[in-house]
Amino acid sequence: MELLASVVSASSLAGNDIANALFANPYEGAQFSGYVADDEAVRTARHAEAIPRMTGHLDDAAHQLDLSATGCHYLAYGITEDLASMQDHTAASAQQTTGLALTAVQYDALKSLLGGGRLYESSQRGLGVTRVATDDGTRVSIATYRALAKRGLVTADNTTSLYHGQKITVTEDGHRALSQPRTHRAALTTAAATAPNAAVAQGARR
Fold it and tell me: In the chain, where do the E strands start and end?
């Protein structure tokens, strides 16, 4: 916007310089009755005084027009670069969003964690076992949680002890993953369900 404003300013100044050049041009029109015509010496002196002023104004106008043309070239280049950068960013975002497709189990776990959840550690047979507790009671395995955390879809508040429970938060990437069409998740679920059946059928044929 600043560059565009400079182009407009330079063009306006060029127009003003051209107007000043015309204004400095001595009047050499037809003679009017009742007015004494200037002699040749007076006209020569007037021209000698006006020509440097006109030349100066025209030189200034040419300079401003040159600046305006240069600004237009830079402006066109900048717009082209901005559009290309925007297209690259859009493509990168699309690729990133596509890569956030979830399995049915992951989707249900992530959706449940939107309502709140905690990561905590309990003692079982003398060993520390890390578990996930959701506010709505949905069962989320630690393996599913770690898969979501690895992809940056959820994060836990590690400033709190696991024994007291670390609050789980769904990240912006997690929200984007949940906004994906169900076709992505359905395809993954169908593929996962079909694979064992296909294996069983193949074993039966053998």
Answer: 117-124, 127-134, 154-156, 166-170
